[in-house]
Amino acid sequence: QQRYVQLSGSEQERITSPVGVIFDEELRLYLSDSAGKVFAFGADGALLFTLQKAGADRLQRPTGIAYSVRTKLLYVVDTLANKVHAFGTNGDLAFSFGERGETEGRFNFPTHIFRSPAGELYVTDALNFRIEIFDEQGKALGSFGHHGDGSGDLAMPKGVAVDRDGIVYVVDGLFDNVQLFNRQGAFLLTLGKRGIDFGEFWLPSGAFISDNSELYVC
Fold first, then answer.
1. What contacts 152, CB < 8 A, 6 or more positions away?
2. What is the side-by-side order of every strand in the sheet holding 177-181?
3. Of the candidates 1, 17, 21, 153, which lies 20 to 30 Å from 79 by C-alpha distance?
4. CA atoms of 6 and 18, how far apart (whole Å)
5. Distance between CA atoms of 107 and 96, rounded to whole angstroms?
6. Among 59, 56, 45, CA closest to 17
7. Beta bridge partners of 201
8. pTM of the model
9. Smallest Cα–Cα separation from 159: which of 19, 5, 49, 4?
């Protein structure tokens, strides 16, 4: 017998603008709501808690979300704050990194985030038109990408994902494709084009790579 569970939050705190979801190893589900909250649900779908603050600061626009089985930390991108917050599974803030800027380790409205199998965090730095790479403690390890309209350029970078071989997949909402890069940022090839057929895209956004190396594009 099949069933489904609809998650809507609670009567006091409703999900209003869901953006990203991620599971931890206990099958707890974390959901970012760009209205300023992060929801945590148990494996049975029960609401465990909500986050509205990162330390003393209110969450402004939580968007991308990732989880590390190594550090047991939940990484949440706050686009308007130009930061990434790291929370424990109980909701306590461990640390934050990033601020507004163009130099390495800074952001200009970051959006998506992905933890690679190698344990690195890849963040879409949307209006700097690049992908930034950090370790799990928030130390900047490098970046790649620039604005343009050719192969290997970025026009509207959105979802990012990384496979076991270190290949980086970057969704571009304006190009309507997925571009592949190596760890150093060298362009490799393009997947997809604008359209409504299989393998074609229309305003694609998120991306995820499963443990079976399957690429999912929203």
1. 179, 181, 187
2. 157-162, 168-172, 177-181, 187-191
3. 153
4. 13
5. 13
6. 59
7. 194
8. 0.96
9. 19
Task: Please list the pLDDT of the chain residue by residue as tens digits (218 residues).
Answer: 788 888 999 888 999 999 999 999 999 999 999 999 999 999 999 999 999 999 999 999 999 999 999 999 999 999 999 999 999 999 999 999 999 999 999 999 999 999 999 999 999 999 999 999 999 999 999 999 999 999 999 999 999 999 999 999 999 999 999 999 999 999 999 999 999 999 999 999 999 999 888 999 99
Residue 10 CB-half CA count within 13 A: 12
The most distant pair of C-alpha atoms in the chain lies apart, rounded to whole Å, by 54
Q: Which amino acid is at 199?
A: G
Q: Residue 5 is encoded by which pair of tokens?
A: 């569970």
For residues 59 and 146, give the distance between their C-alpha atoms in angstroms, rounded to a whole number: 28
| DSSP state at residue 59 | P
Tokens standing for residue 146: 């620039």
Nearest to 50 by CA among 36, 65, 39: 39
The CA angle 23-159-204, to the nearest 5 degrees, is 115
